[in-house]
Automatic annotation (TrEMBL):
CDD domains in the record: Ras_like_GTPase
Record keywords: ATP-binding, GTP-binding, Hydrolase, Nucleotide-binding
Compositionally biased tracts (Polar residues): 1-12
Family: Belongs to the GPN-loop GTPase family.
Region (Disordered): 1-27
Sample GO molecular function, one term: GTP binding
Protein name (database record): ATP-binding protein
Signal peptide stretch: none
Pfam families: ATP_bind_1
InterPro entries per the UniProt record, alphabetical: Gliding_Motility_GTPase, Gpn, P-loop_NTPase
Native species: Gandjariella thermophila
Amino acid sequence: MASGNSDGQFPNRTGDAEYGNAPGRSGTGAAVRARPVLEALPVKVLIAGGFGAGKTTLVGSVSEIVPLRTEELLTEVGAAVDDVTGVERKTTTTVALDFGRITIAADLILYLFGTPGQERFWFMWDELAQGALGALVLADTRRLGSCFPSVDFFERRRIPFVIGVNCFDGVQPYPVEAVRQALDVDGEVPVLLCDARDRESVKFLLIALVEHIMATLRVADTAPTG
């Protein structure tokens, strides 16, 4: 996949990519109704992006449970079909999904499903996307083109998403607006810098995604029908 040029320019994304309640008690001893216990709302979120963008790391850094991982060693056979340009040191790949969970608030739990990034596993995306309310697309500026298929996928299916630009050590930083322009995403799509290794950074991204999902749903509710 294409990466950032030495002059600081990104390739532009053009066209479509293939791809139990106890009774309460008042001060006088009279029984009062206990407050109802709020049941947390489960929300399914996809974590997408190109191969080596940091999806497995992101899920692992923020999950409050031991994450489920389906990583396998890269093989010579896989090397013949997978593009590892810019991530040559990577020795494993996700072959099915990563899974984690984070409680954002007492009434909101996010279930995180990390998608495989390599093209030969794209056929799984539709199944993983069933029931998802939103997505986080992780971008790697060393090979920004690798996240184009993820952006196209969510745009086509009208699944709200945010872009998280993963800031790798030793990699030239780019302004958020330069990344937005290269990805050619709508202005209302949040594009934010992040560190996939840092729990608070990832949590900030996920909160931004929840807010974006809610804003999208409000717009849909007020849109004229007929």
